[in-house]
Every structure is written in C-alpha cells, then in structure tokens.
Write a structure and sequence with these properties.
single chain, 5 helices, alpha/beta, globular
Length: about 160
C-alpha cells in the first residue's frame, strides 16, 4: 500500500522492542505481551506515527554469541505478534537469512515508506539511517532512552560529522 502525504511511518526492529519488553516484564512481574504492547503504544505516542512495520530476526550473525532464550520467550513473542496483528494489522516481516536490522534498513530505503519515517530500535548502528535519504525525513526513536534522538545528539555522542559516518 502506498503511503499518503499525511502518513508517518515507524519501521520497528521488533526483535529489539520485544526482547527489551520481555526482560523488563521478567524483572517487574508483568506479562511480557502487555509490556510489549505498552512499549509499542509509547513509541506511537512519541512519534505520532500512523503506520508501522515490524521487522523480526531470522538468522543471527555468526559473530554474535547469545545464550539460550529463557522459558516462555518464544511463546510470549508469538502471542505478542498475534496481538499486534489483531489490534493494528501492521505488517510483520521476517527473513530466515537476515537479522531485523537488515530488514529495517531495506524498508527505510524502499519507496513504500512515507515522507516522514521513524526507525525504532535500541541498535546504535541503525542511527546511521537518520541521514540516509535526501527525499525523506528519517528520525530515530531509541528504545534504550525511550525518546527520539536528534541528529546533533548522535553526532556529539559518537564524535562524527553526520550519522551515516
């Protein structure tokens, strides 16, 4: 579906959003699905987005060594996906051979996104997408800080000239 001129898109590193919600829920005794949905609603609140696409991990990069997922992680993730689909009908994509951050970058570079886009992640590498499109405004919502980062903040934090560096 082509975006309208009024659309604001979120391209979500869903694996990152869900993992943060799951582990926060474990610490607080909250249901992980509810925690994930609250997190998603918080992002909508900050960005005023009208559309969202969720990008999920397929195969992890070989250099990343991660332990086994805790009990219930996959079941709650599947339930979270079902709730997102039922409540919002947002597209959810996964490629067996790619991580979510690769999919996020591909979507941001596609012509299917609106003039205003927010990348939603906790992955600092995705901050480089902030200035990747000359024909679009690309913002970055940081799941770690729970706020929209501005370009100057990213430049200062990483001592670079622009986010694509």
């Amino acid at each position: 579906m082509r975006p309208s001129t009024d659309d604001i898109d979120m391209v979500i590193d869903a694996s990152s959003l869900y993992a943060r919600a799951f582990f926060a829920a474990q610490r607080s005794g909250t249901d992980p699905v509810i925690a994930g949905l609250r997190s998603f609603m918080g992002v909508i609140n900050h960005t005023k987005a009208t559309r969202a696409i969720f990008c999920w991990d397929g195969k992890a990069k070989s250099e990343k060594i991660r332990g086994e997922k805790p009990e219930g992680y996959d079941d709650h993730r599947d339930s979270f996906k079902e709730h997102v689909d039922w409540l919002w009908g947002s597209p959810q994509i996964r490629s067996i051979d790619h991580e979510a951050d690769d999919l996020v970058a591909a979507v941001v570079h596609s012509d299917l996104v609106s003039q205003e886009i927010y990348v939603v992640s906790g992955d600092k590498d995705l901050q480089q997408l902030m200035d990747c499109r000359k024909d679009r405004v690309v913002g970055y919502y940081c799941l770690n800080k729970k706020k929209i980062l501005d370009t100057d903040e990213v430049i200062e934090k990483w001592s670079i000239k622009k986010p694509s560096h």
